[in-house]
């Protein structure tokens, strides 16, 4: 489709980056979320994991260290590589949202956590930004670092140009073409003496103490368990992203692939090519070959339509030449409960429908009832076998956003105005 060339030009102009920059590609999707991939949980961490991780502590009592711990100091920030303490004395209370996320038999001394202390008189105010998505990076790029110090906290160290992810799934673009390091968007993060980027997930915010509490990103090569640290702020910008909407349909999280991060595109690309190669092996039944080569996309929004179009182009231009033995078996089905691109103009919807139909995409109107490892069950009783399933039905508020005691709309999203996702939340 024509979007990649236009979007690439817009990408370069909007962030003024050098398109020749090269990045390291993870060797497998489960690797650490550094450029250009990211951990599948990325910005939207499940906070129940905190119950079984990091600390073995009780009742938020004051704690003390029974022996010295090895620590490293990086640009005036003291961080311990392992934070297991033993009980002693009276306690500092946790922020309300974190108190609900940690077992009642756990203890953590919030006051003793390592990290950045409040700014002192005469120092520049500190702006803490949570996230490295569109809103966060646009804010970071426009921030005047002569007036403010900036700290960015995110489980990924880059921004993803999401409209082009569909092209990376089929090799039209490489993964390094759709990711940009956050330190190139805001150079102060790597050069200014009191500005930092922290590879971590925010676990809670205390708006009274003006502190955020973070967990170091897991699977980051640490020899110890991930640890907690805190960062004091003068102004806080929350732009921590959203979670894919699954509507609590059984089997979606276990069996479907999403398309929101670079590692998601890597998984889709790997699965697609694996199915193509397996389908040529002798001994596979006709029915199994058809299942392996059936690609199903759930959701007729912009992402679902764009991916379906890229996939059909890939089949027409590459699969029919390189996998000639199975070229007549591969097919694409797009399932949508209503009309595709329902939020767009009628003319655009009709154009997209005609284009996909001519490209060989089978459009099905239906509601998914359950997803199983090898087939989808629709509400009308229809079974649809699949080899690749991509789920793209929109996004909703993340668990982190839900946990914050800040004004939100009934659906859990931010209200427009003072608590907008790209507004600063003032501290001192």
What does this structure look like?
The structure is a single chain. This protein is elongated. Strand 2 (71-74) and strand 3 (77-80) form a beta hairpin. The protein has two domains: 3-243 and 400-426, no CATH class; 252-393, FAD/NAD(P)-binding domain (3-Layer(bba) Sandwich), CATH 3.50.50. The chain has helices at residues 3-15, 96-99, 134-142, 165-169, 182-185, 188-191, 252-255, 262-278, 286-292, 302-322, 346-358, 399-403; strands at 63-64, 71-74, 77-80, 86-87, 115-116, 126-130, 149-154, 158-160, 179-181, 196-206, 211-216, 228-232, 235-238, 242-244, 294-298, 331-336, 361-365, 368-371, 375-378, 383-385, 388-391, 395-397, 424-426. The strands form seven sheets. The protein has an eight-stranded mixed sheet. It has a four-stranded parallel sheet with strand order 17-16-15-21. Strands 18-19-20 form a three-stranded antiparallel sheet, with no helix packed on it. 25% of the residues lie in helices and 23% in strands. With 428 residues, the chain is of the alpha/beta class. The chain starts with a helix and ends with a strand.
